[in-house]
Amino acid sequence: MSKTNLATQFSNIFGRAPEIVTRAPGxxxxxxxxxxYNGGTVLGASIDRGVAVALARRTDGKRNFHSTxxxxxxxxxxxxxxxQSGDSSWTNYPLGVLAAxxxxxxxVIEGFDYLADSDLPTGAGLSSSAAIELxxxxxxxxxxxxxxxRETVVKIGKHAENxxxxxxxxxxxxxxxxxxxxxxxxxxxxxxxxxxxxxMPAGASFxxxxxxxxxxxxxxxxxxxxxxxxxAARALGVKWLVEVTPEALLAAQAxxxxxxxxxxxxxxxxxxxxxxxxxxxxxxxxxxxxxxxxASHRSSQRLFENSTAELDFLVDTLVASPGVYGARLTGxxxxxxxxxxxxxxFGAAQAEAVAAAYAAKFxxxxxxxxxxxxxxxxxx
Length: 380
Ligand code: ADP
Ligand code: MG
Fold this sequence. Notes:
Elements: H1 3-14, E1 20-31, E2 41-58, E3 62-67, E4 72-77, H2 92-100, E5 111-118, H3 128-143, H4 150-165, H5 172-179, E6 184-189, E7 194-199, E8 205-210, H6 221-236, H7 246-251, H8 258-282, H9 286-304, H10 309-319, E9 324-330, E10 337-342, H11 348-362, E11 367-371, E12 378-379
Parallel strand pairs: 3-5
Antiparallel strand pairs: 1-2, 1-12, 2-5, 2-6, 3-4, 6-7, 8-10, 8-11, 9-10
Helix pairs in contact: 2-3, 2-4, 3-4, 3-5, 4-5, 6-8, 8-9, 10-11
This protein binds adenosine-5'-diphosphate and magnesium ion (MG).
C-alpha cells in the first residue's frame, strides 16, 4: 500500500492522478474491553496494516467511490447525503465523515473521485471501519486545504460511526488509529478524552487469529451491551460506570438487575486491569501483563458474555502454548479475532499448531496474522 502503488491503481480506475493519498492503521484492542463508552480507560496498539485512500476533486459535483474491497464504483452526487444500503453500504463510512465535518466547523468537499485500498481484514475486530474513517477524513480535509488537529480528526471519525453508520462505539478505535506510534501502545482516558503512548515491552509481539466467525456489531449485540451498561450506571446514580470502584459495585449489587450487574462488573474490573497493565508495562513485568490479558478474556467469557466457543478455544490453546504471555478476544467480541502477546518461544510453527487444533475442532482454519505496531493516520 505504498503511495506510488495507490496512485497507479487510482489512475487505472479514474484515468488521472490523485491529488492526495492518506493512510490510517487498524488497531488491536490490547486491554480495556467495552470500557470506552463507559468513560473508562483502554490500551490499544496501532498496527502495521490499514486502509489507504486516494482522492482527486471533480468540478461536476459527482462523487465516485471505489474500493478494492468490493471492486465496485458507487456514483453519488453532492447534496445526496442519504445512507446507503446493500452493496454500497461501505460508502456510509466516507459519507459519514462528510456528514460529520460541518459539526466541527469544517467545510465539505463537493465532487471527487475516491479510492480506498486495504491490507486489513474487515469485520475481524481490527477496526477497518476506524481506519477508513480516518484515512477518508484526512483526504477530504487535505484536498480542500483544511487542517485539523489529531484529536478533531479522531472525533470526526467517531462522529461518522456513531451518527451516520449508527454504531455506538466509544473512542478507542479512532483514538488508536489517530494517535498510534510504532513501538508503542496508545493509552486513552476516554472521559477526557486524553491520549498518551506507552512503550511496548521489548521482545514481545502480537499474533492475531481471525476466526471469520460473525462479528455482529451492527446487528444489535453491541447495542444491547451498551444499553445494559447504561442501565447499571443509572441504577447506581452515576453517568458512567468509570465513577464506580469494583468494591462499590459489589456493595450495590442488590440495586442492579442481575444481567446489568454482570456487565457492569466486567467493565469496572476491566478498568482496574487497565491501570494494573500500565503499571506492569512501566516496570517491565511482561508475565503480569500477559496474565492480565488472559484475565480480561475470562471476564468477557463469564461476565460480559461477548465471547464465543471459537474464541474461548483459541485462548485456551494459546495460553497452553510455549512462549505465550497471555491471550484474549480483541475488539467488540461475538466472534472475530483473538490476540496473543508472545515472546521468542512462539513462532510460525507454534501458531500453525494452534490453527490445526482449531481446524480439527471447528472444521475451518483461522487466519494467522503476525502483527507489528505501526504509526497513526497520516497524509502520505
Ligand atoms: P471492523 O471495524 O472490526 O473491521 P466493522 O463492521 O466495524 O468491522 O467495519 C467493517 C466495515 O468497514 C466493512 O463491512 C466495510 O463496510 C467498511 N470497510 C472497511 N475497510 C474498507 C475498505 N477498504 N473499503 C471499503 N469499505 C471498507
Ligand atoms: Mg469497526
